[in-house]
Amino acid sequence: MRVILMQDVLHAGKRGEIVNVKPGYARNYLVPKGLALVATPGNQKVFEQQRGKIDARHAKEQEAAQEIATSIASLRLRIAKRVSEAETLYGSVTASEVNELLLEKGVTVDNRRIDLEGGIKTLGDHQVRIELHPEVIAEVTVTVEAEE
Questions:
Q1: Given 8, 63, 67, 87, which residue has the most CB atoms within 10 angstroms?
Q2: CA 82 – CA 146 distance, rounded (Å)
Q3: What is the model's pLDDT at position 53?
Q4: Do residues 93 and 125 share a domain?
Q5: Which residues 6+ apart lie within 8 Å of 43 measured at CB?
Q6: Alpha-carbon span 86 to 78, nearest angstrom
Q7: Is-contact 130 114, C-beta < 8 A?
Q8: Do 58 and 102 fall within a single domain?
Q9: DSSP readout, 70-115?
């Protein structure tokens, strides 16, 4: 099924592209969420007419994400976790725990945007990627310490 992407979609394509996707993916996910339009001649004309508004909204979102990224870059988050005698963590640091630390610092981020790359399971400093926008990725340092 051919669709026009209204936003960047991971593994599908960039905003404005006409791509072929499976019909169920288009009907059940992309179209209802407003991420795509069915690629009919009428929808293509509508998209071209609204392209300026969409580009302006995209630029505004990117600018806001860039501001958040600059504020996050200077942060250093500390978290205390229980450890065994061999200094390995019981469990791991989760995205929601990192999000709570960011909220304490006044930064609001969606949990799904925090990439722990397989989880944090050791003590020490770890770089955590936060995808604020498809074109803006911030990194924050999370220090895991032993709980006393």
A1: 8
A2: 6
A3: 86
A4: yes
A5: 4, 37
A6: 21
A7: yes
A8: no
A9: HHHHT-EEEEEE-B-TTS-BSS-B-HHHHHHHHHHTT----GGGEE
Q: List the structure tokens of 109.
A: 């981020």
Same domain (yes/no): 112, 46: no
Can you tell me whether residue 140 is helix, strand or coil? strand
Alpha-carbon gap, residue 57 to 51, rounded angstroms: 10
DSSP state of 138: E
Query: Which residues span the domain enclosing 11?
Result: 2-64
Residue 26: predicted pLDDT: 94
Q: What does each of the 148 residues of the chain score in pLDDT, given as a tens digit? A: 999 998 888 888 888 889 999 999 999 999 999 899 999 999 899 888 888 888 888 889 889 889 888 888 888 999 998 888 887 888 888 899 999 999 998 888 888 889 888 788 888 999 999 988 888 889 999 999 988 7
Q: What is the CA radius of gyration of the chain?
A: 20
Structure tokens at 59: 């630029």
* Backbone torsions φ then ψ of 132, nearest 5 degrees: -80, -25
